[in-house]
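Hi there,

I know you've been waiting on this one. I reran it after we fixed the sequence typo, so this is the corrected version. Both the input and the resulting structure follow.
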Amino acid sequence: MLIGLSLLILLSSAAFCLHQKRREAAWRGGLLDDCTGQVATPRLGRDRAGFATLRGRLGPVAVDVRFVPDTLVHRRLPQLWLHVTLRAPIATEAVLDVLRRPAGAEFYAPDRLPLRLPVPEAWPVDTLVRGTAGAEALPARMGPALSRLLTDPTVKEVLVTPDGLRLTVQASQGARGTYLLLRGSRFPLSRLAPAQLGGTLRDGLDLARILSEPSSETRHARAA
């Protein structure tokens, strides 16, 4: 009888774990189901961890949306970041990375940029600005649009490259009880709200339009 009871407990535990695993997979895969209307020709998918991805277009701009779970910094709650990449030619040969509240564990940010640039006075002081040669002019080119964006506490990173730009914003923060008791990551988010993605897309398009225009230095070089 004891063996039968033990077997029943094991089977029940296995069934519960399987149910939880399927539930977690369904949650990860459905996070962007409500957001397909934010882009043209939407294509939903999943990454290697099972998180939803979304690809589409906004006019001539290709859009790539994906999630990045971040549980590396133990002194804070886990974060679920949203990466929104807009692929459009940028009038620069430089790379610029603007990182808010750096903790030294941002594995998703480029870590081999050779220059550390001064933080403009209008920006929050807890901002790290890095780049390659020629990136010095990019913050001023983006002007008030970038300054306003950096005051949003959900914004984590703005990355500019010659091929486009990427915004990293907070999609959700881990539940405190689950993390404090079990050090687990459970995010109180059923699905991403279309308005949240739409706002990030508009911010990215604003910056892309500004950066697609040749800089004054480029215009002067061409004129010469």
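Quick highlight: The chain has a mean pLDDT of 85.

Best,
R. S.
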